[in-house]
Amino acid sequence: MKLIVGLGNPGKEYAKTRHNVGFWCVEAWLKTLSGVREKGKWDAQIVETNVRTEPVILMRPQTFMNRSGLSVARAVREKGLDPERDLLVIYDDMDLPAGALRLREKGSSGGHNGIKSIIQELGTQNFARIRVGIGRPEPGILVIDHVLHAFSRDDRIRVEAAVDRAVEAAQAFCVESFPLVMNRFNSASNVK
What we know:
Blueprint: E1 2-6, H1 21-30, E2 39-41, E3 44-51, E4 54-61, H2 68-79, H3 83-86, E5 87-93, E6 101-104, H4 113-122, E7 128-133, H5 143-147, H6 153-173, H7 178-187
Parallel strand pairs: 1-4, 1-5, 5-7
Antiparallel strand pairs: 2-3, 3-4, 6-7
Helix pairs in contact: 1-6, 2-4, 6-7
């Protein structure tokens, strides 16, 4: 079984913000499915589906970003998952230009509070990630204001394309080795 987690903040006021790109990826995947409904479990919205024959749980934690690890850890423990093999987290990254993708097998939080929470709750940094670039704030703009506001029109177009690529990469993660997935999607993720 695979657990695919998109990070974001619950609530309509955050739905279109840069910090919710992880939610956008789960929502884009859900649009490709028929006859499934989200349900509440582990303080998250989840859907159980399959990629080929692999069972998959799609998750959007509803705990706010800085407590995302609580939902993820509960699911990992209850389902007996190995974070290093079975978990993929998709989230926004200011250190990448808007619309860029970067896949990694492990690493630090890089200052991202959602990843920091997951690392703390799981007790490991060894889990797969897809980072979706949202770009840095303009000079004089606070980080919090940057991540909690909507994209410009041009950046949104680039990020929506990246969301589609992130969903393809996440689906591939479910049935292929992650090094192969990283090789394919990292090399193809340059922003045009």
